[in-house]
Amino acid sequence: MTGVARTGDTPAVEGQAPLLDCRDLVVTFPSKRGGEPFTAVDHASLSVRSGEVVGLVGESGSGKSTIARAVVGLQPLDSGVISFMGEDLTGRRTIAQRSGMQMVFQDPYGSLDPRMSIRGTLSEMVRRHTPLRGQEVERRCLELLDLVALPSAILDSRPAGMSGGQRQRVAIARALSAGPRLLVADEAVAALDVSVQAGIVNLLADLRRDVGLSILFISHDLSIVRTLCDRVAVIHLGRIVEEQPCADLYANPQQEYTKALLGAIPRLHARRGNASPPAAAWAAPAGAQ
Amino acid sequence: MVTDGRPGTDAAAILEVEGLTLTLGRGAGAPRILDDVSFTVRAGEARGFVGESGSGKSMTLRAVMGILPPTVHVESGRILFRGEEIVARAPDGSPSTVSARLQQLRGTGISMIFQEPSVALNPVTTVGEQIVDAVRRRDGMSRRTARRRALELMDLVGIRNPGERLGSYPFELSGGMRQRVMIAAAVAGNPQLILCDEPTTALDVTVQAQILALFRHVRDELDAALLYVTHDLGVVAELCDSLTVLYSGKVMESRQDLRAAIDQPFHPYTRALLQSTPDIDHLEQRLRTIPGSAPTPQNRPAGCPFADRCDRVQDDCRQGPVPDVGVGSEVVVHCLHPFGRGSAANGVIDPSPAEVLR
Amino acid sequence: MSESTALTPTVRTRLTLPSGVARSNTALVVGLLILGIIVALAIAAPALSRWDPIEPDPLHALLPPSGTHLFGTDNLGRDIFSRVLHGARSDLTLASVAVLAPFAIGLAVGITCGYAGGWFDVIVMRVADIVTAFPFFILVISLVFVLGGGVWTIFIAITAVSWVAYARIVRAETMVVRNTEFVSACQVGGITTPRILLRHIAPNVLTQAVVYAMSDIVMNVGVIVTLSYFGLGIVPPTPDWGAMMADGQQFLAAGYYGLTLFPAAAVVLTSLALSLVGEGLAHVLRIER
Q1: Which residues in chain A have Cβ-Cβ distances shorter than 8 Å to C181?
Q2: C183-220 as b/e, with b when 16 or more CB fall inside 10 Å?
Q3: Alpha-carbon torsion B343, B349, B351, B355, what sign?
């Protein structure tokens, strides 16, 4: 697959209703020791337009994974509305709603059933979401493997013999088998080696271009997000602190937290401008647990 | 050659790994986890040891500490600490000889910081106890003196309110704080060499930045040498002076000057690795990948292990043998066709301007 | 995470440990060998017995082992070898069959409790606690007195008590598997709950239950033998190891060991074989991640 996905060049149509619209989401978890409930998501709003790749960036405990799980229906909301293709979604999803939105998880070593062959995993989804049967299912499985650049021989394997990158490709193929409009990638490349990460990110960029897939890309890694996303939202302690088109965010971060996040990224080459970490940065911040 | 006041090749060698070959099991066909690995860490030097998963980098650290799993054997080579042999092949066929001296050295001469502080710290004792234990191991001082020293150490690693923190259990602390505790325990004995096994991989990026800054601070205070294992080239660029790149158990490139290595890598693997690392300051249209995957110890081909994935590969690469070429001990490249002028025959690398990466 | 190129077969008698070193699965091989011989002998019992195991022959009572009577004869002149072989048939069959019902019930209950949780889980587990609070043999003996002796009683008694262990084991495993990402992926993928339970959860929780079943058969052999020893089990004159041991006890002082010794040896050997098979299976069924 050749070609370039240029950031800042969204094929989405302005003015159209967004594909995914999350408004004022709140998720709290009861505190184990009977104290204050913990607010994981604090009135967060987010949207993804058709054909767009939106990055959601935050550190651990920021609430980004909670939002991802809420979007696909794995996490109930305390309040707020998630609407997809104009329809408000509840905890119970219809099969049509499920088809429209799929997820790729972080852990390549846990997201595939270890006792099922790849053929089993893929055909189960194909049978559930399409009317195809028999030989056509097999053909569809081969098409899906082709989309994610995996050899057809892998159909007979089980996950145990496969590398992290291959498993994530299978996970993407499984998600694609439902024919979704939106893919939620929850730290989909975090557990992979750097050279393998690049392959998966490129694959997602290609899918967005070839299949018209919209992507909500959750990550803690600002460097990866930059190469893939059109818009980026930064989340901190459950709140969306900043949201801008990708290039603008990196060139001109507005909020202190965003600047701190950008400044903290280790640089391969000498820093330019004033993006160096402060001198006494090694001391633990006051109030840190 | 001295950069930033850091020691050059004339400083004393703290750690010397010579031709270390580790195998899984014994016997002629035993798969090699490390194949003839050699490098040196000098006093006060921070050496970055970079490789992807399965390259053998963690196993190297374990070999230095003498904590290899029982199935891994030292087939040849040895490890010296300050000129003294600490790990070598065992004549009777058991995995390795770990000298009794190494047992003494652990914690005082050499100490190690692990990746997962939640796993490396004892969950049922307070952090204060663990640091005090580390302190007392060296000098056998009284509890009160050791406690004072523990407070000093916690101050050194930037833990605020150390008095209160002494009584905390590891589960009460965040990942960054636990890592600070581990660093405090590791430097308690004033070691000359600190081994780091991906200590910041499990941490958030802002916390990682703090811990990296802490490492710089600790190095300055203690003047300790560092052997820093990671897969993240960015981290190495922020912290280290020199670089060794490991691939499928073999050293591909070893450079005394890290900045020069990043600007001008000689080995195709190093170059590919740098190109696939996303750089926040330079917008990439499309990330570079390295197609294929690394061979496992069981499947390593003859010749260069990187041959199947290299875009400079030629016929002689697959047959081998592949020499180590370079400039003295400052530059070592394991390649038949490295970037840079000069051939493998005369063993000299002379980089031409056109080959500079950036 | 190291990469492994070995694809995983389903059953193997040679293990590939994560370090790559292969070890023979001695336990499984030896256990299956011994068990195979015992089962073969039990199946072929009618063909192998020259003498009727039930018909008394007072003229040839208490004979020592010889060429004609391999294990000698008992006090009623019956050939001990034939009786041991026939005893194997009744004891092994009953012990194995008596495992099936608790296994099935425990599996169903355990998976439902583990997956659904909530009040159903709480109530069923309390029932399980009550059952285990009763001393096993008191319960069994009471049931036997109420229902009368015989095979069906033993069957019901064992089932009523044994299902609890399976339920607990399966429930614990289910709770672990329920939280894995591949189950979440199935939920997001719209796979129906019954299918998730059957195709994804059950195969991944079966292992421990199967291993336990092996040791359960051993325990059942003990239970049946004990019950028969007390005259509460298999109705005579059907040969049974426990009854044989009880009957033969009185002759030990007089120096006639064969009546008790040979059935006892059979019990020990069978238990040993089953334990080895259980241990071997535990290794084999563990799939590498």
Answers
A1: 105-107, 110-111
A2: bbbbbbbbbeeeebbebbbbebbbbbbebbbbbbbbbb
A3: positive
Residue showing tokens 């690995």? B37
Taking CA C33 as the corner, what is the angle to CA C32 and CA C36, rounded to the nearest 5 degrees?
A: 80
Going by the DSSP 8-state scheme, the letter that residue B115 receives in this structure is S
Q: Which residue has the higher pLDDT, C127 or B298?
A: C127
Residues of A in contact with C7 (CB under 8 A): 157-158, 160-161
Pick the residue of A113, A117, A119, A127 with the most C CBs within 10 A to test the interface with C by mutation.
A113
C-alpha B47/C-alpha A252 separation (Å) is 35
pLDDT (average), residues A47-57: 95
CB contact under 8 A, C2 and B54: yes
Residue A277 has pLDDT above 50, yes or no: no
Task: Note whether A186 and A68 are within 8 A (CB).
Answer: yes
What is the tens place of the pLDDT at every residue in B238-260? 999 999 999 999 999 999 999 98
* B69 contact C CB<8A: yes
Which helix H or strand E contains C154, and what residues bound it?
helix C151-178
CA B333, chain centre distance (Å): 18
Is B293 in contact with C2 (Cβ distance < 8 A)?
no
Give the nearest chain B residue to A286 (CA atoms): B160
Q: With bands split at pLDDT 50, 70 and 90, how would you rate the model's confidence at C282?
A: confident
Q: What is the pLDDT of residue A187?
A: 92
C-alpha B302 chain-centroid distance: 26
Average pLDDT over residues B301-324: 87
What does the alpha-carbon distance between residue B287 and residue B280 come to, in Å, rounded to a whole number?
Answer: 12
**Which residue of chain B has the CA closest to C20?**
B24
How crowded is the C-beta side of C67, counted as CA atoms within 13 Å?
0
C237 upstream amide cis, omega within 30 of 0: yes
A105 touches chain C (CB under 8 A): yes
Instruction: Answer for the pair A157, A163: CB distance below 8 angstroms, yes or no.
Output: no
- Closest-CA residue in chain A for C187? A74
CA distance C34 to B148: 66
Do the Cβ atoms of B293 and C3 come within 8 Å?
yes
Q: Are A19 and A46 within 8 A, CB to CB?
A: no
User: For residues B274 and B262, is the Cβ–Cβ distance under 8 A?
Assistant: yes
pLDDT above 50 (res C52): yes
- How close, in Å, is residue A190 to chain C by CA atoms? 13
C21·B69 Cβ contact <8 A: no
Tell me the mean pLDDT in the region A10-37.
Answer: 79
Q: Is the pLDDT of residue A30 over 70?
A: yes
**Which chain A residues have a beta carbon less than 8 Å from that of B243?**
none
Check: CB of residue A288 under 8 Å from CB of residue B160: yes
Sign of the dihedral defined by the CA atoms of residues B198, B199, B203, B208, in that order: negative
Q: What is the mean pLDDT of residues C226-234?
A: 77
What is the value of pTM for the model shown? Answer: 0.80
Average pLDDT, chain C: 82
Tokens read off for C113: 């409790």
Nearest Cβ partner of C8 from A106, A158, A174?
A158
Q: Residue C244: what residue type? A: M
Please tell me whether the peptide bond between B321 and the residue prior to it is cis, using omega within 30 degrees of 0. yes
pLDDT of residue A274: 39
Coil, strand or helix: which one is A261? helix
